[in-house]
Design brief:
Subcellular location: Cytoplasm
Number of strands: 8
Shape: globular
Order of helices and strands: EHEHEHEHHEHHHEHHEHEHH
Pfam families: TIM
Strand order of the largest sheet: 7-6-5-4-3-2-1-8
Structural class: alpha/beta
Number of helices: 13
CATH class: Alpha Beta
Largest sheet: 8 strands, parallel
CATH architecture: Alpha-Beta Barrel
Distance between the termini: 43 Å
InterPro entries: Aldolase_TIM, TIM_sf, TrioseP_Isoase_bac/euk, Triosephosphate_isomerase, Triosephosphate_isomerase_AS
Radius of gyration: 17 Å
Number of domains: 1
Strand content: 5-15%
GO molecular function, one term: triose-phosphate isomerase activity
CATH superfamily: Aldolase class I
Subunit structure: Homodimer.
């Protein structure tokens, strides 16, 4: 199984969710390609809806921008109406796939075991899974953030080899910050990311956490991105609404590319 994902790169991944038809997605991709022609110092990916993948792929081909999907089924094929498998995504040119997003965990009642199966299905086809973890507002207010993050990470990475673990990306997405306009403070993001790294060290093996890319997700925009990326533990972002406008997504990618010293000086 080939592993081309570099060790702990900075990454900005745009999650378009249920937005943009196939023609609209291709147009947005072309606009983004123009803005990113002078390549930023971070990896960039976009995750359109399934219906737009085939249209977006040609616009990204040869540009260095990665194509990703928003979900995947754990089986390679079978009687699963409405589902999409990892081989199907690979055949369209996808390199990444989001698994365990809170909108699936809480909106579709997806449990930790299902997230783990999807993660492994993605790895089995050479896709880089972006594994989402995060607590709800009620869990944070009850002081259960650490408990939730450890449980979700343990379920996803238990019995996974270090090589496979290093071929993944983690996205810390506090549920209370997704689509709400609220955003975790840089300190809250730093603490959560450090906890996830320590958990990976314990579950997979020492040194794993330090080498895995961990993104922050939750109402990231050009106005707050720099403060988040100034934190040593934050390697980039999984961007929702702000990725639907090429100019705003480009600004976030530029911030993710800047040296942390420069970002800290600008606070």
């Amino acid at each position: 199984m080939s592993r081309s994902w570099p060790r702990r790169p900075r990454l900005c991944a745009g999650n378009w969710k249920m937005h943009r038809t196939a023609p609209e997605g291709a147009a947005l991709a072309r606009e983004l390609v123009e803005l990113l022609r002078a390549r930023p110092g971070c990896e960039v990916a976009v995750c359109p809806p399934f219906t737009a993948l085939e249209s977006v792929a040609p616009a990204l081909r040869g540009t260095g921008i990665w194509l990703g999907a928003q979900n995947v089924h754990w089986e390679r094929q079978g009687p699963f109406t409405g589902e999409v498998s990892a081989p199907m995504l690979v055949s369209l040119g996808c390199r990444l796939v989001i698994v365990g997003h809170s909108e699936w965990r809480h909106g579709m009642n997806e449990d930790d075991a299902t997230v783990a199966r999807k993660l492994r299905a993605a790895l089995g086809e050479g896709l880089t899974p972006i594994v989402c973890v995060g607590e709800t507002l009620g869990e944070r207010e009850a002081g259960r953030t650490a408990e939730v993050l450890v449980r979700q990470a343990q379920a996803a990475y238990s019995d996974l080899s270090q090589a496979d673990s290093l071929a993944t990306v983690v996205a810390y997405e506090p549920v209370w910050a997704i689509g709400t306009g609220k955003v975790a403070s840089p300190e809250q993001a730093r603490e959560a990311h450090a906890l996830i790294r320590a958990t990976l060290d314990r579950i997979v093996g020492a040194g794993t956490g330090e080498r895995v890319t961990i993104l922050y997700g939750g109402s990231v925009n050009p106005g707050n991105a720099a403060a988040l990326f100034a934190e040593e533990e934050v390697d980039g972002a999984l961007v929702g609404g702000a990725s639907l406008e090429a100019a705003s997504f480009w600004k976030i990618a530029v911030a993710a590319s800047a040296p942390r010293e420069q970002l800290r000086a600008g606070r």
